[in-house]
Amino acid sequence: MKASQFTLATLRNTPSDADIISAQLMIKAGLIRKLASGLYVWMPTGLRVLKRVEKIVREEMERIDAQELLMPVTQPAELWQESGRWEDYGAELLRFKDRHSRDFVLGPTHEEVITDIARSELKSYKQLPATYYQIQTKFRDEIRPRFGVMRAREFTMKDAYSFHIDKDSLAKTYQDFYEAYSRIFTRLGLDFRAVQADTGSIGGFASHEFHVLADSGEDDIAFSSESDYSANVELAEAVCHDTRQPPSEPRTDVDTPNMPTCEEVAEHLGMDLTRTVKTLIVKGSYSEYTPDMPKLVALVLRGDHTLNELKAEKLPQIKAPLEMASEDEMKEAGLVKGYISVDLAKYDIPVIADRSASVMADFVSGANIADKHTKGMNWERDAVYADVADIRNVVDGDPSPDGKGVLQIKRGIEVGHIFQLGDKYSHALNCTVLGKEGKPVTLMMGCYGIGVSRIISASLEQNHDDKGCLWVDTPDPVDNIAPFYVAVVPMKSKDGSAEAKADELYSTLKAKGVNVLLDDRDERAGVKFADLELIGIPHRIVVSERNLAEGKYEYAKRGCDDKELLGLDEVLAKF
Ligand code: ATP
Ligand code: MG
């Protein structure tokens, strides 16, 4: 490609509305342009990167015998009504009507459509297992689109789905995907981890997320210092080996004016935050069908711990999805917001203590009186809990749930997700085949996603410098996802010799199949170099009259300060 005929679209200034370094770089380097919130145009430079990621993903899907197909983005509502997700999916699902007033959705995912295909095309167990994938645009009306294409509303996903006669077959294909994903992220040169993930409300059997490690990640992941245990913090079990000491202090109310938080109270009383507790009031799972369940539930956590909503909402007493009680509801129940006590015996609100809170003694809780807390609180003597449960997020230094080492928390960007779904969709859509005994068997399903466009943001979060993008070296150079792998830059020469030689070198490299850009723009060398560094082109060859006199070309690798003078053969041998 010749730069004079290519829309490089680089910018001099950092875009003010980009909220993360990768988004700034992608806009500045001309990879993307924002059209509206969460909607981006892939400019020629960016699309070259996207296609290169797609190629690697596709190769690894073919390697595990997944069959590529392509489903429509627009899907009829009937299928979503059949699966139950028309009601359940929420506002991320964009629904609309066609000219005949029929309901449709823009596909955020394709379980319904693929299951519809499977139920009509798969007839016998002999056709199984069957795995399909597509690389396609998804639409999710994200509540907070941000970070450029990292959390967009329209984005490119590789989604795959597998169908099985039994759980064993599903587990085997799942393992194939686990390995394929590991190969993909390794080939891309990313620092990633596969972590255990929550199977959520679907009730599947197993799930792993693949995270690219980066401080800007939206997920917290926990690793053991001594084993290969790793899990999303959403899921990681908080274990507690401590035992409770007997009470040694009397129960006394103390003044804590205008101090609704544990931090303020701990500071005021000169105590460690770990000796305070907080009591959160959430809605219980009471309904006319479950009248024995409580209307409100109190959750008690150590002052320095945070509630894990996913863990809490799995408890039968608690309403899912988790909802905090409103101020009015608390008032009505006789509770004083910000000062709620753990001693709720007379309020008819069951107390669930987190494991770590349940082993505390002589602690501080609210007094259920405005501007007062109680010191010297002790379980059994001063308050009772109905249950002890793991309802908090793990923190750095917690024991690893597998008994080996302690946990360390890092931030991750989720780039892939694999899931043993079980029969949720096949059951709802009646997707069966004839089994060995000649009777219909409901299929087992797996689903597997990769955020193809998000990978590019994630890669840049991990690899950039103050000059711009770095396209990380990949184990095989062919897999490098840089938009151009080599730039050839002629310096203006009086006799035109540098331009001619640069052109020649460009043609030779191109004929060899090298992904090369000739920067033949009528610009100062400094402008060209800055652009090429911003775009992150890994290799640069400068052709100048002076060096040509010695038969040399100046070679520089992006990210390294050194320049080398090489003969033509040496240059060609590099690629
Ligand atoms: P997240 O927790 O980040 O919202 P998710 O659980 O909704 O992700 P999946 O439904 O598993 O994601 O989708 C598969 C993959 O698609 C994710 O692993 C992620 O890489 C990518 N992805 C999901 N939502 C977006 C988005 N809004 N923009 C870009 N990529 C996305
Ligand atoms: Mg999501």
Report how far apart the termini are. Answer: 17 Å
Oligomer: single chain
Shape: globular
Q: What structural class is derived from the secondary structure elements? A: alpha+beta
Subcellular location: Cytoplasm
GO molecular function: aminoacyl-tRNA deacylase activity; ATP binding; proline-tRNA ligase activity
Family: Belongs to the class-II aminoacyl-tRNA synthetase family. ProS type 1 subfamily.
Catalytic activity: tRNA(Pro) + L-proline + ATP = L-prolyl-tRNA(Pro) + AMP + diphosphate
Explain how this protein is built:
With 575 residues, this protein is an alpha+beta fold. The protein folds into 3 domains: 27-237 and 409-461, BirA Bifunctional Protein, domain 2 (2-Layer Sandwich), CATH 3.30.930; 252-389, Alpha-Beta Complex (YbaK protein), CATH 3.90.960.10; 484-574, Anticodon-binding domain (Rossmann fold, 3-Layer(aba) Sandwich), CATH 3.40.50. Helices cover 26% and strands 28% of the residues. The protein is built from 16 helices and 30 strands. Strands 3, 7, 8, 9, 10, 11, 12, 20 and 23 form a 9-stranded mixed sheet that branches. Helix 2 packs across helix 6 and helix 2 (44-63) crosses helix 12. The protein is globular. The two termini are 17 Å apart. 42% of the residues are buried. Adenosine-5'-triphosphate binds next to strand 8, strand 20, strand 23 and helix 12. Keywords: Aminoacyl-tRNA synthetase, ATP-binding, Cytoplasm, Ligase, Nucleotide-binding, Protein biosynthesis. It is found in: Cytoplasm.
